[in-house]
Amino acid sequence: MTTIFGLPAHVLLVHGLVVLVPLTAALQVLCALWPAARRRFVWLVLALAVGILALTPLTVSAGEWLYGRESEHRPILQLHAARGEWMIYFAVGLLLVSVALAVQHWLETRKPAKRTALNVAVAILAVLVGVSAVVGVALIGHTGAEAKWGIIAAG
């Protein structure tokens, strides 16, 4: 996929990740810490994580196509491309946490759960993966904006 309605596909697809990754991460943390939220949103969180995993290679592929069309590969553009490769790891991490939440939910429906080691482990994992995914998307996006628009990092 290279263009959508005449626009570079990467430009449009990346906005999906910019919205879905923080949303999914926040919902995962909420579900991990609050059983009532887990009962309501666990399947939505799993569907969002699957969507992110599907959207990531499409976005990276469209970015590689766009990168190939650039005549000059400035260092900031190279950094953005390198950071863009990180996204698959964040997508897999979000999916694994979502699966863990679904398993946790399934176990709770079989036997009312107390605060178990699984609950604590999933909560810690959700926070760590969620924060790292959001920070990662911000870093990737910042270098992309800097490469395209010449935004200078403050400091």
TrEMBL record:
The organism's place on the tree of life at top rank: Bacteria
Domain spans labelled DUF2231: 6-149
Transmembrane helix recorded as keyword: yes
A Pfam family: DUF2231
InterPro entries (UniProt xref): DUF2231_TM (IPR019251)
Membrane-spanning residues: 12-34, 41-66, 86-107, 119-140
Sorted UniProt keywords: Membrane, Transmembrane, Transmembrane helix
Name assigned to this protein: DUF2231 domain-containing protein
Organism: Mycolicibacterium diernhoferi
